From TrEMBL:
It comes from the Eukaryota. The chain crosses the membrane at residues 185-206, 218-237, 269-291, 303-322, 328-351, 414-440, 858-876, 896-916, 971-993, 999-1020, 1032-1052. Belongs to the ABC transporter superfamily. ABCG family. PDR (TC 3.A.1.205) subfamily. May be a general defense protein. Keywords: ATP-binding, Membrane, Nucleotide-binding, Repeat, Transmembrane, Transmembrane helix, Transport. Its main location: membrane. This is ABC transporter domain-containing protein. CDD domains: ABCG_PDR_domain2 (cd03232).
Length: 1067
């Protein structure tokens, strides 16, 4: 945003994930830029440190949608003192401002001893500000109309975009080329897949096995052409995922007027054309002559040109669907739906003469109809098909007879009509894609859960009502975070959480020591290309320390110091790389299998199943992680206790939702993450940046939770980026690292951080801390690499020569020895619960998730019902007609299209659902909740009833409308084959996600199998016509068995002869 000409900058939470020193530098740079260049900047920050807060000129304080204060920073404390509230000496002003308007935190700042405290609502603050001198000055300023004559003509822009349309287009072309280079794997894999399919098709429709001696064999050539068209169309399917996943960035940039939609859509279309030449060329060049198509060079290049146009049309169609749907699940369903309509009404599955009059319009708008007509005419008007069989008065060539038999227009001009239609559809779909991106908004919006109590508090704040304090304040909310007192013992304040009175479940306090931990990874190829000769990159360089029960330790350092890496190594979360050194638990060597049972890990990214409630998330974690001897009543009591501790009780029944889309807010999700680990009753808890992304008040709530957890005697370690003074001094000890993975301080903070300050101020050349300065920020500023170079020292060396280091080494040695009479951790089983319980718990959660997921289940049932009605009306009453072989082809076509498309829809729509839950599975499995089998069991079993309902809905509607024979055995056989077909497609979709690293690759790999199953299904080429070297796959292909079962169950016992005398069952 800064590189543009904008003078008014609006920045929201720009410090999330940054340490306080970096945040200070960024805001300081913005301050200088605004002051020098005369700009305006409005910045919202979470937990700004005092020195960062002091950089601002003006402050705007909002509460419940109203301006409580707006004006100079220097006057804000004066205003609140005039109302009766004062900021304590060692309290950050920003933190004070966020808490003073909150009903739960306000009382501690009341200073008028002569008056009893009563809650001052937002309404009263607003009224007081209006009469305060700053408020009066603002009102006076706003009362004077703006004088336009004093403004420079160039002050406001007169153009919508910063540069000309040509420049915008160039910029987007450059970016699209860059993205294509970095996504080259997708295009290479797609090309490889198409070439692989061309080899399979080439050897299946091998020219030595392809005869031109009958209309029936001409139909095999028609099948080969149809398959080629389908392959080229399906090849564009990956554009759907690529489009949808790029849309969030596009919508952000479009709304900020970076560029119009057309400047984005034109490059995404034009730049794909060269790739189309390569992909289509690979298919056509390999298959054309080997399959034995007409050996005329002109017809070869005409087929190539048509296939290029078909590929562009398909890619444009999928881009349009992605842009209009804006959601992967919805886009997948509607893409499958469009393909189905185009395919069924394309003239190959159901010939034109058999299309009902109420559906003939669908035939004429289907792009596949034009493609199939054009490619068929190009082939069958060739010299190879000139021979005349069974001479009649009309003397029609074999080629014309084949075209008429398959319902294709026998006129050469249809090649050019088809080619023109493909180009027309390409332009149309790209135009619609541009319109969709111009006028549609981003899919969904961010919503947070608000509890009933919070709503009542907001109402009271706005209207000045007084609510019952006992109802509004929960015990754990009242009072500040307990500060450390400079020693190692946990001091309990009077007003602490109920958890302090003793949890319902006991636990074993454990210490964790680590000595000379080194961690390295293979040197990245990019660094080797730049001349680095080492084979390994060392991220941790011999760090040592000790974490003890009842001691809250902060793990800190600048970004890139290795904080999270060290925590992952200690917690056993690193699956790659090389680890050296000793880690012991209460003196015994750490074994990951047992350690996972007594430890909890709160990840920085709050990963939870979106479709379950807060209480259900906690119940699931407790069910699987607490020992079997804990009964359900005690388990529920413990969960209630933990919810009280982390202040989640008001949100008990709120759905978790997806981050940034719906459900819980960032701060609520953070507390849920902590609660999910706490209900496992661990002895050691690791927390990766528990306050990141939270405002000061939310961070204080989280830190109260953490502090109360430590006070129960647990060992807790937190990485933390930019703590306020309150939060920083709530820790007992600090483990400080510098960039490069070395420790430079490990020890107590002391009262008001005195021990830390004395240590660094004792180093020659280090600047003294200023009064009121945040010790955490000062510590990070004085220990940077730049400071080391300026002072000519190495803080790591100084620490290793200090008395503190020697004391720590002695403590590590002491803690590494088992206590007399103690025993090593032992659990008879790897998991807390039996496999049966794990299966039941996973099935329970999957059941809740599926029931609350309408975008998946409701859409698929709607899609299935609509498809059933479409098929019923398209193939109306054709099931009982068996006088011609084409009638049986039509009946088979209804089965083939349904199986393939509803199956593919099931497969594609289940993949995003599985992909979202897979990240949750990785976290829960790493936490030792369950093994892979129970999770798979839950996902598989929950599909059974939903798929049964889906198959029944489809089967009942279609069976009756198409007019198949109404006998119980035939009807139930039809349902049986449909049910198990939809099941194996769904399970294949799950398997594809499980075996591939991400959803994109899963969708590309899946499309290859759709093509193979389609090819060997028995509809495009019958099994007797398949060459001997491929016939084995006909017995392996699941769709072939489905189609065989459906056809045989309906027609296998029918002995009625057709027009040519062949019994139906011998067809």
């Amino acid at each position: 945003m800064l590189v543009g000409p904008a003078k008014a900058l609006f920045m929201d939470e720009i410090s999330t994930g940054l340490d306080s020193s970096t945040t200070f530098q960024i805001v300081n740079s913005l301050r200088q830029s605004v002051h020098i260049l005369g700009g305006t900047a409005v910045i919202s920050l979470l937990q700004p440190a005092p020195e960062t807060y002091n950089l601002f000129d003006d402050i705007i304080l909002l509460s419940d949608g109203q301006v409580v204060y707006q004006g100079p920073r220097d006057d804000v404390l004066e205003f609140f003192e005039s109302v009766g509230f004062k900021c304590p000496e060692r309290k950050g002003v920003a933190d004070f401002l966020q808490e003073v308007t909150s009903k739960k935190d306000q009382k501690q700042y009341w200073v008028r001893g002569d008056e009893s405290y009563r809650f001052v609502p937002v309404k009263d603050f607003v009224r007081a500000f209006q009469s305060f001198h700053t408020g009066r000055a603002i009102r006076k300023e706003l009362a004077v109309p703006f004088d336009k004559s004093k403004s420079h003509p160039a002050a406001l822009t007169t153009t919508r975009y910063g540069v000309s349309g040509t420049e915008l287009l160039k910029a987007n072309i450059g970016r699209e080329i860059l993205l294509m280079k970095r996504n080259s794997f997708v295009y290479m894999f797609r090309t490889f897949q198409l070439i692989l399919m061309s080899f399979i098709a080439m050897t299946l429709f091998f020219r030595t096995k392809m005869k031109r001696d009958s209309v029936t064999n001409g139909g095999i050539y028609m099948g080969a052409l149809f398959f080629g068209v389908l392959m080229i169309m399906f090849n564009g399917f990956s554009e759907l995922a690529l489009t949808v996943f790029k849309l969030p960035v596009f919508f952000k940039q479009r709304d900020l007027l970076f560029y119009p939609a057309w400047a984005y859509t034109i490059p995404s279309w034009i730049l794909k054309i060269p790739i189309t030449f390569v992909e289509v060329g690979g298919y056509v060049f390999i298959t054309y002559y080997v399959m034995g198509f007409d050996p005329n060079v002109g017809r070869f290049f005409k087929q190539y040109l048509l296939m290029l146009a078909i590929n562009q049309m398909a890619a444009s169609l999928f881009r349009f669907i992605g842009g209009a749907a804006r959601n992967m699940i919805v886009a997948n369903v509607f893409a499958s739906f469009m393909l189905l309509i185009f395919m069924v009404l394309g003239g190959f599955i159901l010939v034109r003469e058999k299309v009902k009059k109420w559906w003939i319009w669908g035939y004429w708008i289907s792009p596949l109809m034009y493609a199939q007509n054009a490619i068929s005419v190009n082939e069958f008007f060739g010299h190879s098909w000139d021979k005349i069989l069974n001479s009649t008065a009309s003397n029609e060539t074999l080629g014309v007879q084949v075209l008429k038999y398959r319902g294709v227009f026998p006129e050469a001009k249809w090649y050019w009509i088809g080619l023109g239609a493909m180009l027309g559809y390409t332009l149309l779909f790209n135009a619609l894609f541009t319109l969709a991106l111009t006028y549609l908004k981003a899919y969904g919006n961010s919503r947070s859960s608000v509890s009933e109590d919070e709503l009542k508090e907001k109402h009271a704040n706005l209207n000045g009502e007084v609510l019952d304090n006992d109802r509004m304040l929960s015990p754990s909310n009242d009072g500040p975070i307990r500060m450390n007192t400079g020693n190692d013992s946990a001091i309990v304040e009077e007003n602490s959480s109920p958890m302090q009175r003793g949890m319902v479940l006991p636990f074993l306090p454990l210490s964790l020591t680590f000595d000379n931990i080194r961690y390295s990874v293979d040197m990245p190829l990019e660094m080797k290309a730049q001349g680095v000769v080492e084979d390994r990159l060392e991220l941790l360089k011999g760090v040592s320390g000790s974490f003890r029960p009842g001691v809250l330790t902060a793990l800190m350092g600048v970004s890139g110091a290795g904080k999270t890496t060290l925590m992952d190594v200690l917690a056993g979360r690193k699956t790659g790389g090389y680890i050296q050194g000793n880690i012991s638990i209460s003196g015994y060597p750490k074994k990951q299998e047992t350690f996972a049972r007594v430890s909890g890990y709160c990840e920085q990214n709050d990963i939870h199943s979106p479709q379950v409630t807060v209480y259900e998330s906690l119940l699931f974690s407790a069910w699987l992680r607490l020992p079997e001897d804990v009964d359900s009543n005690k388990r529920r009591m413990f969960i209630e206790e933990v919810m009280e501790l982390v202040e989640l009780k008001p949100l008990k029944d709120a759905l978790v939702g997806l981050p940034g889309v719906n459900g819980l807010s960032t701060e609520q999700r953070k507390r849920l993450t902590i609660a999910v680990e706490l209900v496992a009753n661990p002895s050691i808890i690791f927390m990766d940046e528990p306050t990141s992304g939270l405002d000061a008040r939310a961070a204080a709530i989280v830190m109260r939770t953490v502090r109360n957890t430590v006070d129960t005697g647990r060992t807790v370690v937190c990485t933390i980026h930019q703590p306020s003074i309150d939060i920083f001094e709530a820790f007992d000890e600090l483990f400080l690292m510098k960039r490069g993975g070395e420790e430079i301080y490990a020890g107590p903070l002391g009262h008001h951080s005195a021990d830390l300050i004395n240590y660094y101020e004792g180093i020659h050349g280090v600047s003294k801390i200023k009064d009121g300065y945040n010790p955490a920020t000062w510590m990070l500023e004085v220990t940077t690499i730049g400071q080391e170079q300026m002072l000519g020292i190495d803080f790591s060396d100084i620490y290793k020569k200090s008395e503190l280091y020697q004391r720590n080494k002695a403590l590590i040695k002491e803690q590494s020895q088992p206590a007399p009479g103690s025993t090593d951790l032992y659990f008879p089983t790897q998991y807390s619960q039996s496999s049966i319980t794990q299966c039941m718990a996973c099935l329970w959660k999957q059941n809740l998730s599926y029931w609350r997921n309408p975008p998946y289940n409701a859409v698929r049932f709607l899609f299935t019902t609509v498809i059933a009605l479409l098929f019923g009306t398209i193939f109306w009453d054709l099931g009982g007609k068996m006088s011609q072989s084409q009638d049986l082809f039509n009946a088979m076509g209804s089965m083939y299209a349904a199986v393939l498309f509803i199956g593919i829809m099931n497969c594609t729509s289940v993949q995003p659902v599985v992909a979202v839950e897979r990240t949750v599975f990785y976290r829960e499995r790493a936490a030792g909740m369950y093994s892979a089998f129970p999770y798979a069991f839950g996902q598989v079993v929950i599909e059974l009833p939903y798929t049964l309902a889906q198959a029944t809905v489809y089967g009942v509607i279609v069976y009756s409308m198409i007019g198949f024979e109404w006998t119980a055995p035939k009807f139930f056989w039809y349902l049986f084959f449909m049910y198990f077909t939809l099941l194996y497609f769904t399970f294949y979709g799950m398997m594809a996600v499980g075996l591939t690293p991400n959803y994109h690759i899963a969708s590309i790999v899946s499309s290859a199998f759709y093509a193979i199953w389609n090819l060997f299904s028995g509809f495009i080429i019958p099994r007797p016509k398949v060459p001997i070297w491929w016939r084995w796959y006909c017995w392996v292909c699941p769709v072939a068995w489905t189609l065989y079962g459906l056809v045989v169950s309906q027609f296998g016992d029918v002995t009625t002869p057709m027009e040519d005398g062949t019994p139906v069952k011998d067809f």
